[in-house]
Amino acid sequence: ILVVLHYFFVQIIHRNNIKWWFAYTLIATLSLYSSPISLIIILGHIVFVGITRKDLLQRYGISMLVVFLAYLPWALSLFFKLDAITSALSWQSKNQHYVAFWLPFLGQCLYLVSIFSFKLDYLSAFDQTSFNITPEAISALIFNTIALAMISLSFLFLFKETKKDIKIFLLLIIIPGFMFYYINDLLRNGVTSWWWRYLIFIAPGVILVVTNSLSKKIEKGSLLYFVCYLALALVGISSIDSIAKARHWHIGNTMN
Description:
Blueprint: H1 2-14, H2 18-34, H3 39-52, H4 57-80, H5 82-88, H6 103-110, H7 135-161, H8 164-172, H9 175-188, H10 196-199, H11 203-219, H12 223-246, H13 251-255
Helix pairs in contact: 1-2, 2-4, 3-8, 3-9, 7-11, 11-12
C-alpha cells in the first residue's frame, strides 16, 4: 500500500487532477488504518509539497483534512488504549545493555540489503569459527556485501547526478522513516530498527534510489548494470518466496 501511496503522490504532483487527489486521499487513509506509522511517509510528502510545490498547498491541506477526519475514530480508539499498546511493545526495550548512539544508525545502513535479499544474515559468517563457516554463510556474505556496495554507489549517484526535485522526493521518503526508528531505538534502548519488517517503510525509497542509478547506466548500454538489475530482481523474488514459506507475519502469534 505504501508503493501505491507514493505512486498516487507522484501523480498529483505531475497531473494535479481531481481523480488522483481522490485516489491519494483514499490510499493515505487506508495506509494509516493499516499502520499509524504510515504518518511518517505522509509527513515526507507534506515537506516535499512545502519545498517544491507551494502552489499545491491548499489542495494538499484539504486532502489531509479529509484524511484526518476519516482516521479520527480509529486514532481516538488507539489513544484510549495507549497504555495497553505501550505494554505490548515493552519487549522491544528489555535490552539490559547500553545502546551506543551510533549502533542503530550503523545497523540500519548495513541491513538495507535485507530490502533486496532475505537470505541468511550476511554477518553470521563472523559469528562462527573459521572452521565452521557454512557455504550458505559465505555466499550470503559475498552477495549482500555486493548489494551493500551497489546501494552505497546508488546514493552517491543520487547526490551527484540526479535532478534536484527527484533527489528531494527520494530523500524525503527515506529519511523520515530512517530517523523515526533510529530515535525510537535510542529512546527505548533497543536495537530493532534494522529488522526487515521495520525497514519496509523506507524500502520503496531505497529501491527507487537503486533502480534510478541502474536504469541510467542501462540506458547508456551497460551490460554489467543490466545483469546487476536482473540479479536483484531474481533474488528479490526468491526472498519473497522465503518470507512466504517462513510465515514471518505469524511471529507475534508464535511468541504469544
